[in-house]
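User: Please predict the structure of the protein below. I'd like the answer in C-alpha cell form so I can feed it into my own downstream comparison script.

Assistant: Understood. Taking the following sequence of 490 residues as input:
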Amino acid sequence: MLKYQPSIRQKITLGYYIILGIIVGLSIFSFIELRFMEKKIMFGEVISEFFDTTLEIRRFEKNYFLYEKNDDYYENIRYVTKAQELLEKNIKGFETLAAPQQITALRTDLKKYKELMEQYASPHGQKGVLAGKIRKTGKDIITDAEDISKTERRNLQIMLYNSQSVLVFSIVALSLLGIALGQALSRMVVKPLKLLENSMEIIADGRFERIQINSKDREIISLTNALNKMLKELELRQRHLIQSEKLASLGTLLSGVAHELNNPISNISTSTEILREDIETADNEYKKELLSQIEGQTDRARNIVRSLLEFSRDREFKKEKIRLKTLFEETMRFVKGQVPTKVEIGIDIPDDIVIFADKQRIQQAFLNLIKNALESISDEGGVFIKAQKHRAIDKVNDETGIFNYMKYRGKCTLEEDTVDIEIKDTGAGIPHELLPKVFDPFFTTKDVGKGSGLGLFIVHEIIEEHDGCIAVDSEAGKGTAFLIRLPIKE
C-alpha cells in the first residue's frame, strides 16, 4: 500500500474552507442577531405608540372635562380602543416586559376607564364622583405604560450592548483564529519553502550541499528529490568540467614537460655514448658510475612522466599528506617551458609545511593560478610563491601576518590553524571593479578565444572542496595576489 502523504494544496484548501466556514458562520449569526434586533426595534415602536396613545387618552380626557365637547370625548374613546387593540395584538411581547398581574391590571384598567368615560358622558352620570375615578384609573394606565416603556428601552440598550460585545468578541476571535491559522500554515507551508529558498541560495553560491528539509508534504518532498537529483547531476558535470579544463591544459603543459624530459634524456644519451666508447678500456668503477648516472636520469624522466600521468588521470577525491614545497616544485616543472627568460620565479616555502589535500586537484588549482600569473606578465617581472602557518586567533581584528589585507571567499574561519599560501605576480593586474567577479564561471578578462572563464571558478571550487578559502587582491598595472587558506588538520 502507498503511504499517504499530505499536500500543501490540501493544507491551503483546508485553511481556506475553515476560514470560509467561520466567516459564513459569523455572517449567519450576525444576520440572526440583526433580525432579532429588528423585531425588538419594531416592537419598541409598538410600545412607544402604546405609551403615546395613553398620553393622548389623558389629553383628550382633560379637554373633555374642561370644555365638554363631544369631539374630545369621541377622540378619547377612540384612543382607548386603540390602546386595547395594541395590547391585545401584541400581548406576547407585552408579557416579556411586564409581570402577568401588571398586564391583567392594565387590561382591566383600560376596560374600566372606557366604561367610566361612557358613564360620565351619559346625561344621568354623577360627574363629580366619576371624574375622580377616571383620573385615578387614567393615572394607573399611564404609570403601567411608562413602566413597560422604560423596561423596553432598558432591554433594548442591554441588547445593543450585548450585540456590540458579541461583535467585538467575534472580531477578536476571528483575528486570533486567523493569526493561529496563519502561523500553522506558516509552519506547515511557508517554513519548508523558506528552508528551500535558503538551500537554493547556498547552491547559487556554488556549494553543492544536499538539500534536507523536514517536511511530509508531497510537493516539498518531490521538489527536494528533484533538486537533489539535479545537484548530483551538476556535481557530476562539474567534475567532468574540471577534468575537461585539466585536459585542455595538457597541450600547454607538454611543452614544459618536453623541456624537462630533454635534460635527463640528453644525460642518458651522453653517458651511454661514453660507456659504449670506453667499455673496453674503462675500469669497473668508472663503468658503475656511468651506469649509476643513467639509472638516476632514468628515474628522473620516469618521475616527470608519472607526475604528468597523475595530473591527467581522473580519479576519486582522496586527501593525503603532501609536502607543500615539493608539490610546487613539481608543478613548476609543468610550466617551465612557458616561463619567459626575463620572468623570475621565486618559491619561499619552509620545508616543514605540509597540507592534507587531494594531490591531483590541489595541483590543478595551483597550476591554474601560476599559468594566469605568467600570462599576465607581458615582458619582464616575477611570480612569487610563499607560504606560512597561521595560528588560530579569537578576533578577526587581531589577525596578523602577510595576508591581513585580504577578504576571504569560501569556508574560511579564523578559529583554526591554517596554511596560508600566496601566489603573487607583477603583471597587468585586475581593475578594482572586476574583482568581485573573478571567481564567477565564464568570466574572463582575456581576449575572445583566449580563455574559457572557468580557470578561477575551478580553482575556487577545488579550494572549497578542501574546506579552505581563496581571496584576491589586485590593482591595474601593479600585479595580482591570490591567497589560499587551507586547514592544517586533516
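That's the full C-alpha cell string. Residues 234-314 form a domain with the Helix Hairpins fold (CATH 1.10.287.130).
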